[in-house]
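User: Hello, can you help with two protein structures?

Assistant: Certainly.
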Amino acid sequence: MKKIAFIIPPSVELLDLAGPMQVFTEAKFYGFNVHLEFYSFGQKIKSSAGLPFGEIYHYKKVKLQSGDLILIPGANFESLNKQLEKEKHFFKWLADYAEKEVTICSVCNAAFMLGEAGLLKNKECTTHWRRAEALQKRFPDAKVLEDVLFVKSDNIYTSAGISAGIDLALAILEEWTSPYFVNKIARGLVVYHRRSHKHAQQHIYLDYRNHVNPKIHQVQDFIIENIASDLSIKKLAELVNTSPRNLSRIFKDATELTIKEYQTKIRLEKANTLKNNPEYTVDRIASECGFKSARQLQRILKTH
């Protein structure tokens, strides 16, 4: 049986903890044999939002073996900095378990704890984009990647902030089981777009949105929601009560892309996501993403 020990720091960020925890809880529901345990540095723990926890065992009571996993969620950064100065014994304990081939995972700024334990030396790693520069400065021997969701370096995993912990947990679960099983877990969690380590923290659904034109935002939303449809510029122009020529002009001014270029980027993003689903054929992916054929999809994927 796999065992996962969650080490809950003071002022923990709730979603950093709850996201990965729910992934593995859902896996148990579908029959995966895993045991979840919870530990901390002391008995009185509150989340960053002020939610108190019940009695939690001290981390020194953990008993793990090779193949098990330790997961540390992120915390309020000011509180975390205090832990970096006072929990020297914990960092030694963490390094010892890493040497015993226990998998060590961090979510968000918990990567700083792994750094203090010496686990990021000469390794690729990541953290929340707000803390990437600080992580690199504090641990110059680390190879901090700023725009990825999570990174695996041997038995060390680090992930970006908040919801990226879910992506990390799903990826780990896939290594333990299969893509088909993890697809069921993602669907159970209503996480329809399971992202891989290759996906950036910022992506097409958020990019090209730093303008204030409500009509263009409306058109962008409509394109995303109707990705499989053959949307003409005329139809999009009617949506926002303007002419096709004017829409083309103001769309390019706002986003620096043509409408067709934006549609293609949206379709490619969804296609790359659906490729993670083992039940989907290339033909089905092409159809659901609005491409005319699998050949057209493959050609555009190759071009981009």
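That covers the first. Now for the second protein you mentioned:
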Amino acid sequence: MRPILVLTGRDDLTADAVVEELTGRGEKVVRYDTADFPTRSRLAVSLTADGWTGTLANSRTLRLETVKSVWWRRPNEFATPESWPGHARALAVSEARSGLLGVLGSLPIHWINHPAHDAAANYKPRQLAVAARAGLDVPRTIITSDPEQARRFMGSDRVVYKGLGGGVLGPGRSRQFLPVALVSADQVDEGVSGTAHLFQENVPKAFEVRLTVIGRRMFPVAIHAGSDAARLDWRTDYRSLAYEPVPLPEQVRTGVRTLMDELGLFFGALDFAVTPDGRWKFFEVNPNGQWHWIAVKAGIPLVTAMADALQGAAE
């Protein structure tokens, strides 16, 4: 039996649910965290005419050429001994990433998502541009380090300020993000020139939508915010939220399909706002977003859809 490889950390409830589903179907699943390399596992592969063959071994041994699909879920950073000098640790992590991910990424099998596509799609300016070309309705947006351009964009309106990246690792390796905020021109000073900033029109919302895409299957769920904080950014107040599946307009479905294809993504968690007059405004796609909580809250079959995809039963 060809195994399914799940790359994620040990504390991942989403992966737990999918692994349980696959195991119940009789599949062989190997779960591996890149944090175990190189200190707690070993890679031994050789190049052949068919590509890399060999093993990745920790408490169990996996022959890489036998793997039939890979889920790039949420693996942790490579780990090296803390006693090593800082430059040696940095070099070892760089070589580990290039070596292990280079070998895994070269395997001619089904990925959800391939890490190279995942990384490239995480650039928010790229996904916004692709979404606009795909015919999705993208809010009026600028990216600037010029205070005067920022003021001109805002005019007399308050606009939304968002971080461009995925945050940084803070104390205790917890990820820290720039909060979403409403800002006005009188708040802009020369500090804007210190880096790139994303400003976007403040879209009026009837509700928001989390659209989870797994291959050709799309699962749209309305998110109704019950507090002022959640109406600006629903991630700030989960307790106030209510969920319900909603129909997906065909024009949005077509644009999303084009977006996913151009970004090379099989899976994505997309965020939209639906305006009071019914327009779907695209905000972003997270190539590796969380989704198990919304499957439970809205009663949608994301676990079975992901298991189908990893088995090769759905494209």
